[in-house]
Design a protein that fits this description.
Blueprint: H1 8-20, H2 25-39, E1 44-50, E2 55-62, E3 73-75, H3 79-87, E4 91-93, E5 115-123, E6 126-135, H4 143-161, E7 181-184, E8 186-189, E9 192-199, H5 214-237, H6 246-258, H7 261-272, H8 277-293, H9 298-319, E10 334-338, H10 343-347, E11 354-359, H11 367-374, E12 378-381, H12 386-389, E13 395-399, E14 404-407, H13 411-433, E15 448-453, H14 461-465, E16 470-474, H15 476-480, H16 488-502, E17 507-510, H17 537-543, H18 545-558, E18 563-568, H19 574-593, E19 601-608, H20 617-623, E20 626-629, H21 631-639, H22 657-673, E21 677-679, H23 687-696, E22 700-703, H24 705-716, H25 720-732, H26 739-750
Helix pairs in contact: 1-2, 1-4, 5-6, 5-7, 5-9, 7-8, 8-9, 16-18, 17-18, 18-19, 20-22, 23-25
Length: about 750
Amino acid sequence: MRGSLAGPRVLLRRLREIMAEPISAQDRLDKIVAQIASNMVAEVCSVYVLRADDVLELYATEGLKREAVHHAGLKVGQGLVGLIAADARPLNLPNAQSHPAFAYLPETGEEIYNAFLGVPILRAGRTLGVLTVQNRAHRTYFDEEVEALQTTAMVLAEMIAVGELEGLARPGTSLDVKRPISIKGSAMSEGIALGHVVLHEPRVVVTALIAEDAEKERLRLEEAIAHLRLSVDDMLSRDDIALAGEHREILEAYRMFAYDRGWARRMDEAIQNGLSAEAAVEKVQSDTRARLLRQTDPYLRERLHDFDDLANRLLRELMGKGQGFDREGMPKDSIIVARNMGAAELLDYDRDRLRGLVLEEGGPTSHVTIVARALGIATIGRATNAVSLVENGDAIILDGDTGEAHIRPPADVEVSYGEKVRFRAKRQAQYRLLRNKPAVTRDGTRIALNMNAGLLVDLPHLSEAGAEGIGLFRTELQFMVASTMPRMTAQTQLYASVLEASGDRPVTFRTLDIGGDKVLPYMRNTPEENPALGWRAIRLGLDRPGLLRMQLRALLRAGAGRELRVMLPMVTEVSEIDRARALFDLEIEHARRHGHSLPSRILLGSMVEVPALLFQLDALMERVDFVSVGSNDLLQYLTASDRGNTQVASRFDPISRHFLRALKTIIEAADATGKPATLCGEIAGRPLAALALVGIGFRSLSMSAASIGPVKAMLLALDLGRLKAMLEPILAGSGPDDVAGALRAFAEAEGVPI
């Protein structure tokens, strides 16, 4: 080893001994800096810890004036120490005082020192402090010495992260690691949740930082990397991964990172310096994360998630831990924090312990959001970097009304939200008083308010919310949460339970809407470059008639003796309705032949969510008993904007002139032929959007149970005649372009709550 370094392995061994000693936190810090200075033959070694007010406070030193400890400090960005914290990278200078960022602190007595080496104290890429060494002589520290100081900084990072240094903070100050943070995202499902963080893909906590046998650790790392690479190759070889397209390109980039020799070499070097294989992975990942966070190239910053995921998978390989969460270890007030997740993954959690959901990605009409809303779970999406800012168990307040999350909230924020929760409870009590009151406008127009559902857990909300029926029962959720294809008996039992729970209220069952982004793990999927426009819903059902007929048979048996309403999703041409009706007729005949009781009345309807149907409305109305508008898909297809893409999901307003005109065309065609029409998309549950929908003619809406109270309160205060008079010129093109703004102004002037 070149230079003055006695050897990082010797240093780490001594640090491990110090960490095991039964001494105070300050004594431990003092011993650590003395040991580093001795090992590196440095005249000065100092530890600066980042406080919540962005000040790097001197917490321990060997060589500077001891009376400066807990009194000297530099702001982030101030001086050499502040520069290291701001840039999250080492600084190696032969003559520190000549550097333009040098700041002289007379209370420390450091003016006589020239050579300077400082490294950030990092954990998960987050800067927690700065570790420095100094010498009188003019010299540049060797790379081995920089590496050794970075390695020992990990020990200090662990001390800070676990809270060992909190007791050393001066009165009125706190460490940055416990700093309250507020994140602004997008409101996806309303509600207020107070609880504790549960990471959907929890970071592995490395506790064994130091290892004696470097060769053994190298072999462990090599074996774990080999398993990781095999798993990545397996992902790329799966049949449901398209041979081309964006998803393939992302996975190819992921594989490139996994096979990167530089990544493996840096981890190997960390092991040679005395770290365990796990600590080597964490150190290299922390350095990589800090470097990528400084990048201005959006592509490189996006790759940060890939590196995080790769390192986490490698740590799990090393520690023999499976992916996922500990169901038994969930707190009773869990708030899930995730980059993104599927609807089935959300349903894996214990509903009794689940209070909220924070997503870095996800849009208001993504399926996990729809399920969260159906379950009454407060949700925010597009919460940038949420996963990296929290730890399991952190206190968190989630505001699903404003799209904000408050991590480690201070007392005044907790008090404020306590008041808000009490206010919401009072408002919900007022909505419950409206439960049995019909939704009739001030000028006497009755509006039917129905509920969207898909699980048995939804059914108690029917009576609680005062819904008139289930306007949309998503039958695919039973298939999405099952590990194998549900048998006909299981389907029949579910549908019968739904009908029994609804009593005399109508229920509209939508046939399987799978395919696209709703992939069933037990069903072989044909690779598709654009699944949202591909083989899904009724297209899949007609091509796999056995699957559709089994579901229709289960529905017929469950509906024996009462009205059965069945709706077909994603119809593009009316001929598809003819083919589906023919299959339905075969099942009706089969039931008769085998002596099964039939429903007293069978109604077949169609979703209107593909723009092509807008030009077949006359033929459509001749073939169906009712229609239901799926505004989520209709909007994304009309505007060519993927509803799951966070960059475009909110780009187009559903309360726009062109979209309302399209919806008005549908309701006018239904009214002209006397066919009932409902809108069951997510916009129906927002009072402002519901105001527009009833204004253009809809008299039946279906929404989440939590939305019924606010929409009903809006309708009871509405003069529909005045609303229609206001909307007509706007839809004709002579009014303002901002339709939503005009509706807000109308509601305010009329005293209509939205």
